[in-house]
Amino acid sequence: MATTSLTARADLTVRRRWAVLAICALSMLLVGLDTTIVNVGLPAIGHGLGVGTRSLEWVVDAYTVAVASLLISSGALADRLGRRRVFRCGLLVFGAASLACAVAPSLGALVAARAVQGIGASMLSPVALAIVVNVMPDPRERAQAIGIWASVFGLSMAAGPVAGGALIGAFGWRSVFWINVPVVVAALVLSALFVPESRAARARRLDLPGQVLLTLVVCVSVAVLIEGPRVGWSSPAAWGAYLVAAAATASFVAVERRRPEPLMELGLFRRPAFTTAVLGAVAVFVALTVSLLLTTLYLQHGHGWTPLAAGSATLPLALGATVCAPLSGRLAGRYGARRPLLLAGTFLTLGGLTLVGLRPDPDPRQLVPAYLLIGIGFGFANAPITNTAVSGLPPARAGVAGAITSTARQLGSAIGIAVAGGLVAGVGPAGLARASRPGWLLVAACGVFLFVVARAARHAPATSARAVSSRV
Fold it and tell me: For residue 25, what are the CA distances in angstroms to 260, 419, 421?
């Protein structure tokens, strides 16, 4: 993705450049936390609004579907209108939607507000990283900043259940949305003071037909996964959804092939390394969200644990991700993506297999090692997957590749929630351990797939320093 000239950025002091990173990382913390913080609160939300588990899946997926659908377009809009302007607009939308979530009187209102919150989040993640890349003229400083960025995102995703459990235990489920408001206000004030405006030297055109079709594909596909167990996989409604999803997908491919500047550059999928990396990003986030949701339901619904206790049970996962994310970045930079991907696949597979035989009653001797293994696998996975996706690409295409990979992560989160919810829907507390076994096998299978990604990464060309520094 093209950026403004280096001379426009070189006049920023070192202190101000790192202040910009801190402000943008704060927004990334919000996006990551809200992807997982609500998971631990689902039982409390269901109790407060009087709804069941099946309907609650939309509370999480309305957010992730909106983010997944709009990430690429938000980046293109920021290049055209100004990154700081779109970033601040995203903060305002996210903050207003958080307020609406906090006071939502019904499930429908909460789901709608979560979707709007996702729209705001889509303006924060890619745009904030583009701002960071723009203010860091030195490639080495820029690479260090991107490493810190990745660590913040990994920490926020893994720490969401712990933070959510603490807030819900102390203040109720609405507090997981109220807490966003002061953070958004602080980010708005600080961005006005420290973040410079920037635009791309040549902004990409907005692809509205592609955006509409991509949103339709994602929404219908996730809806089928969520509602399929309820309406029946072979029911007329399900078959209608299959046909809509297939037609929308075919139309999306046809439209994107004809566009001079498509929303999604389909030619990138001709590269095996890129395609497997995108699928690997989906797999990693399927594994993470399945793990978090099954844990929440098993401990809270199945055994009456408080949200704080259930969130604290995932501390080993957060610890593993936090420690291993920066280590993975260093390994990928020194040795390439293959080694950290092999480590990620090994630990994720072992973690999933450890929980296949989940006992009816929680046993810390089984849970703690399993969550630690899954956290380590998650921590090792993200940096090499992105590195594999952009390997050998020129800067302009590396930005698009990074955006597609980010979209794949959000899609993986949505799929994971839908699959986990479908496994335990209508299952009583006594049967949750048995019902969750296919989910833990899925986590292990996602780990095994990372070995395929590692094999593809071995044949991928090395990533140039220029491409790494321009990744958005």
Answer: 33, 30, 31
Q: Is-contact 369 385, C-beta < 8 A?
A: no
Residues 97, 114: Cα–Cα separation, whole Å:
7
Helix (H) or strand (E) holding 143: helix 139-171
Give the type of residue at 421. G
Residue at 262: amino acid letter: P
The Cβ of residue 357 has, within 10 Å, a number of other Cβ atoms equal to 10
Torsion of CA 399, 402, 408, 414, to 10 degrees: -90
Annotated domain spans of the chain: 7-207+259-469, 208-258
Alpha-carbon distances of 73 from 219, 395, 430, rounded to whole Å = 16, 18, 45
| pLDDT digit string (tens) for the chain, length 472 residues | 444 433 345 567 878 888 888 888 888 888 878 877 887 888 889 888 888 766 788 888 888 888 888 888 887 788 788 889 999 999 999 999 999 999 999 999 999 999 999 999 888 877 887 787 778 777 667 666 766 776 677 677 667 888 888 888 889 899 999 999 999 999 999 999 888 888 766 667 778 898 899 889 988 888 888 788 778 888 999 899 999 999 999 999 999 898 888 888 888 888 888 899 899 999 999 999 899 889 888 888 778 888 888 888 888 988 888 888 878 877 877 788 888 999 999 999 999 999 998 888 888 888 999 999 999 999 898 878 877 877 666 655 666 776 788 888 888 888 888 888 888 877 877 788 888 999 999 999 999 999 999 988 876 554 443 333 333 3
- Helix and strand tally (H, E) in the chain? 22, 0
CATH no., domain 7-207+259-469: 1.20.1250.20
Q: Which two tokens stand for residue 212?
A: 């509409």
Structure tokens at 124: 């924060």
Contact by Cβ (8 Å): 36, 176: no
